[in-house]
Design goal:
Oligomer: single chain
Distance between the termini: 23 Å
Shape: globular
CATH architecture: 3-Layer(aba) Sandwich
Number of domains: 1
CATH topology: Rossmann fold
Strand content: 15-25%
Order of helices and strands: EHEHHEEHHEHEHEHEHHH
CATH class: Alpha Beta
CATH superfamily: P-loop containing nucleotide triphosphate hydrolases
Largest sheet: 8 strands, mixed
Length: about 270
């Protein structure tokens, strides 16, 4: 089971769009996928057609201490979406209170990871949609994952945001002894500009082969699909947005195949 967080402390860089549409594209490729919505804005929940305020079981219950009367295991909050093979652990605005409720709890950064490990769930992929911050919710997501996809929009402050994120990852390595692999996805891109080319070159210098070849271009179908509560592959499968996320899913799957081959070589 691969656990991937989609993160960036900046908002508006297509984290939720990527979670929903990468998840749906992996499901299209016959993978069983769970999306965990760790953002109090609950955009993944909304974007998959659910009304957050009508849900009485959410990720907040998972983050409650085990002895709390409100605590639920992860498998108890998972709901199926309309997309075959795609499931959701939803959120609502109540999740915003987790930052304050967990602040003095021992092991607070490990609650999500512990619940995933305890739960008897069977998925090929878990994608975690992170909030636009580096608080305790994001730290829980990063501690639970084995890989991180950092979405960036190619603009002037993109590399500054990456540097701040990497500082957080350095702290995790030092203090939590956790070191997930980091990949970068360029989103909301206008490839015709000089700025786009400059940002891509900088990212390549910094991350080398950990930059996805797939680029998510500006595409109105992506925004329209979210507003209709469905992934773009169901809303407009022939759109460039749908095809881009299908290509991204293929890249993500190939990464696993590559790692499996490397492990086999080491054994031999």
């Amino acid at each position: 089971m691969r656990i991937i967080a989609v993160a960036n402390q900046k908002g508006g860089v297509a984290k939720t769009t990527t979670c929903i549409n990468l998840g749906a594209s992996l499901a299209y490729h016959a993978r069983r996928v769970l999306i965990i919505d760790m953002d109090p804005q609950a955009h993944s929940t909304l974007g998959l057609g659910f009304e957050p305020n009508e849900l009485d079981r959410t990720v907040l219950n998972v983050l409650e201490p085990p002895r709390s009367p409100y605590h639920l295991e992860l498998k108890e909050v998972i709901i199926p979406t309309r997309t075959p093979n795609l499931y959701l652990a939803p959120a609502n605005i109540d999740l915003a209170g987790a930052e304050y409720r967990l602040i003095d709890k021992l092991g607070r950064e490990d609650f999500l990871n512990s619940s995933i490990q305890r739960s008897n769930i069977s998925f090929d992929y878990i994608l975690i949609d992170c909030p636009p911050s580096l608080g305790i919710l994001t730290v829980n997501a990063l501690k639970a994952c084995r890989e991180v996809i950092v979405t960036i929009q190619p603009h002037y402050f993109a590399m500054k945001g990456i540097e701040e994120f990497m500082e957080t990852m350095d702290l995790m390595r030092e203090n939590l002894r956790h070191d997930p692999e980091i990949y970068v996805l360029i989103t909301i891109a206008d490839v015709r500009t000089n700025l786009y080319r400059e940002v891509v070159e900088e990212v390549k210098k910094y991350f080398g082969g950990h930059l996805f070849e797939t680029v998510i271009h500006r595409n109105i179908a992506l925004a329209e699909a979210t507003s209709h509560g469905v992934p773009v592959i169901e809303y407009e499968p022939s759109s460039s947005g749908a095809q881009s996320y299908l290509n991204l899913a293929k890249e993500v799957i190939k990464l696993e195949e590559k790692k499996s081959g490397e492990r086999l070589l080491r054994r031999n």
